[in-house]
Amino acid sequence: MNEIRFRLEISAQEYLRYYQGEVETVRVRTADGRVIDFPANALQKHISQDGISGSFRLVFDDNNKMIDMERVSN
């Protein structure tokens, strides 16, 4: 398994676009400078009243298929 780390800041108002299906993919710049896309529905378990904020770890397999995404810090 492989992992990528990144920081994410999405306001509750902005997340509404993801929730309503207007935006299906999230694009982030990783800690090592790469740009990656992942499905917006991976964020659902990380939403709070204020939106989504923190450092995350995206775990994926050898075929680059996402396995899990977890918050590693605020």
Structure description:
It is a single chain. The strands form 2 sheets. This protein has a 3-stranded antiparallel beta sheet. A two-stranded antiparallel ribbon has the order 2-3. The protein has one helix spanning 12-19; strands spanning 2-11, 25-29, 35-39, 51-60, 66-73. The protein has 1 helix and 5 strands, in the order βαββββ. The mean pLDDT is 91. The chain has one domain (2-73): OB fold (Dihydrolipoamide Acetyltransferase, E2P). The protein is mainly beta and 74 residues long.
- Report the mean per-residue pLDDT as an integer: 91
The tally of strands reads 5
Category from helices, strands and their pairing? mainly beta
**What is the number of domains?**
1
Radius of gyration, Cα only, in angstroms? 12 Å
Whole-Å distance between the termini? 24 Å
- Per the principal axes of the C-alpha atoms, what is the gross shape? globular
Helix coverage percent of residues?
A: 10-25%
Proper CATH architecture: Beta Barrel
Strand content: over 45%
Q: Can you tell me the CATH class?
A: Mainly Beta
Major beta sheet summary: 3 strands, antiparallel
**SSE succession:** EHEEEE
Could you name the CATH topology? OB fold (Dihydrolipoamide Acetyltransferase, E2P)
> Which runs of at least 5 residues are low in confidence (pLDDT < 50)?
none
Q: Treating each run of at least 4 consecutive H or I residues as one helix, how many helices?
A: 1
Tell me the strand order in the biggest sheet: 1-4-5
